[in-house]
């Protein structure tokens, strides 16, 4: 008698096969990419005698968590194709169909496992990835690119908005020709300050030769104050409260990939408050949130092109099309990401749009193969 109910035994079996195959594929891909990365680091280290083999190994190892996050969708795609094609060749899927179990019931556990893997990598591995990637960038710039801390703490032609710290209740906009970080102090030269009122109208303008920022207070020297309806005023010293900190500049210089899912909201808020562009950070944040959906999409894509019974022919062609479709989806994700970084697309549709569209197309393909 046909049995059409959900089988927990079958779900555990298929889920275990899927997770094992995906993890092995992820391990193989990560090892391959890390090997090429290690070879490239060795080539670059050859021009720097002070950079030894241990440093190269450390940088390569610090890159591993980032690579895991980056290639997880590929691993799920290839692992799913391998898993489902093996189930099809062994006729296990034929037996499940004969029992009245649909392809959707078979895919419940792999889809849940893919969602869980995406969530674990996005929420759990991203803090480790952000720390290790940031540390790798620091070591790379110091030893392999020759950018020492003195150069890394200097900023030129910098625009900063200090929101709500003006005596008039409006924002203050700074244009700093040269800003140098010295411990917890910030030393600026050739500073232009625009003070706005609550209506965002220019209240006055200051031209400053140099200034020192510490403990939330600018100590400005040789200040020329220009106000509408008042003659110019020149002061040797001027004190101006400010919310700009060394942490603001530190977060501004960090690439979005070096920040975890949990750190990104605070960084976005801090940078928005200071007037810096937050598009790359919001895009990376939405991309991490969308990773579980992208993992499910890759699972359904792999199933749609590899669950055909072996006797129907064209298996190799279908597997090739499945791999090509997965890579095409990844290319669309990258194109949408670049459109998002350029401002042509808002971060939310740029991150979620390709994954959502791919999920709908993969579901339509499965419906066609199942019911068509």
From TrEMBL:
TM regions (residue ranges): 18-39, 64-85, 106-125, 283-303, 315-337, 349-369
Subcellular location: Cell membrane
Alphabetized InterPro entries for the sequence: LptG (IPR030923), LptG/LptF_permease (IPR005495)
UniProt keyword annotation of Lipoprotein present: no
Species the sequence originates in: Bombella favorum
Gene designation: lptG
Designated name of the protein: LPS export ABC transporter permease LptG
Alphabetic keyword roster: Cell membrane, Membrane, Transmembrane, Transmembrane helix
Bilayer topology annotation: Multi-pass membrane protein
Domain of life assignment: Bacteria
